[in-house]
Design goal:
Length: 312
């Protein structure tokens, strides 16, 4: 009998490149809810909640923020209304928290306050800054790999980092790279995680370092309004530059620019804050057909070839 691999098993079997697979987003809204009025976390939970019901006007309000990503979060037996905003710029990322009385309070979030000095405001109330947070996709109704791979990583993280710092989340993107995780406040996205990766990930995150072999991309590259292709190329280049130069500190590199060289070709430049620059060329083509989601017909996906060009 022929055995069929899940999308995550296939991605791991072919050693799919993780870097350069997270799409642009630099502001993250995390809303605690099991979505009971929507039948729970469906396959497209955020989209469904945007279309009708209690959350529709709230999500439309939050979506006024450029390059925003909205996620619903939950914990087992949780029934509160926690809300977080992560502002994931390169130089000074922050994440803020507030416990809501009612979800409708989010209509009072001052979108303009997200770009101002100080904490975001909901009405006349300032949100509180916190130090760290982890979200793991466990949305098995979107793809079974999210639950199969994500749930054990969530539990390992809750046990190691502390349950108050870890949330299950709806679809992050790239479920074939499950377990997928976002580490805040920097908005660093990881994939192909297993429970045995948790201790190293948390220890490095708290010390200000990244795991480049599990790295998918950054929440944003501050000051650079990149289109999707350029953002993905920057993520792919960053992983290689860090590995070749041993600059694993989150603050060790800052994106300088992304230049288009031709169809699918980009030159990406970083600096280290001490006068050194690092340049890589990224050629983006298409892979051989593979599953993007369990049960879907295989199709080609973007694939990056990265070459470190110069260090000055």
């Amino acid at each position: 009998m022929q055995m069929t691999m899940s999308c995550a098993e296939e991605s791991r079997a072919v050693s799919e490149m993780l870097a350069g697979t997270f799409k642009p987003a630099d502001t993250f809204f995390l809303i605690e809810s099991n979505l009971p009025d929507y039948g729970g976390w469906g396959g497209s939970a955020v989209k469904a909640a945007s279309n009708s019901g209690e959350f529709a006007p709230i999500l439309r309000h939050l979506q006024l923020t450029p390059r925003a990503k909205i996620l619903f979060i939950r914990r087992p037996r949780g029934d509160a209304k926690n809300f977080y905003i992560a502002l994931t710029n390169q130089t000074d990322p922050k994440i803020y928290h507030v416990a809501l009385a009612e979800y409708v309070d989010l209509l009072e979030l001052e979108i303009a306050s997200l770009t101002e000095e100080g904490a975001p405001r909901i009405g006349d109330r300032e949100m509180s800054e916190i130090d760290e947070l982890y979200t793991v996709c466990t949305n098995g109704r979107h793809d079974p790999c999210c639950a199969a791979f994500g749930a054990p990583v969530y539990q390992a993280l809750a046990d190691y980092a502390g349950a108050e710092l870890v949330w299950q989340t709806t679809h992050i993107g790239g479920h074939r790279m499950a377990a997928t995780l976002i580490a805040f406040p920097a908005g660093i996205v990881y994939g192909h995680l297993d429970p045995h990766d948790v201790e190293s990930l948390v220890m490095n995150h708290r010390a200000g370092f990244m795991l480049t072999h599990k790295y998918r991309g950054r929440g944003c590259y501050a000051g650079h309004e990149l289109d999707e292709a350029a953002h993905l190329a920057a993520g792919a280049a960053e992983a290689l530059v860090r590995e070749k130069t041993l600059k694993y500190g989150v603050d060790d590199l800052q994106l300088t620019e992304v230049n288009v060289l031709g169809d699918g070709q980009r030159r990406v430049t970083f600096n280290d804050g001490n006068g050194a620059t690092f340049t890589a060329e990224v050629n983006t083509g298409m892979s051989a057909p593979r599953q993007t989601s369990c049960g879907d017909d295989p199709k080609p996906m973007p694939q990056h070839d990265v070459l470190l060009m110069a260090t000055t």
